[in-house]
Amino acid sequence: MPAWLEITALQDVEASDCAIIYAMEPLLGAAIAWITLGERWGPAGWVGAFLIVVSTLSVQLSGDG
Question: How far is the CA of 31 from the CAs of 1, 15, 28, 50, in angstroms?
Fold first, then answer.
């Protein structure tokens, strides 16, 4: 059900925005775990989150993606 809902919602979104949303999915999952379950990130989690955000934004802003 959640995958169907996500696909339906993303039909009205531009491809570049959709790519950013899908690339940020691990970060959104971690944020939801932090809010609902009190999960905490270690140093590796912060480095990984930084790399995801920077790489996603750099590809989308440079126009190569």
Answer: 21, 24, 5, 14
The three-class DSSP label of residue 58 is helix
CA 40 centroid distance within chain: 18
DSSP three-state, residue 56: helix
Helix H or strand E segment including 16 = helix 15-23
Residue pLDDT, tens place only, 14-55: 887 787 777 778 778 888 888 999 888 889 888 988 888 888
CA–CA gap between residue 8 and residue 2 (Å, rounded): 10
The pLDDT score that the predictor gives to residue 1 is 53
Q: Residue 65 has which token pair?
A: 């993606």
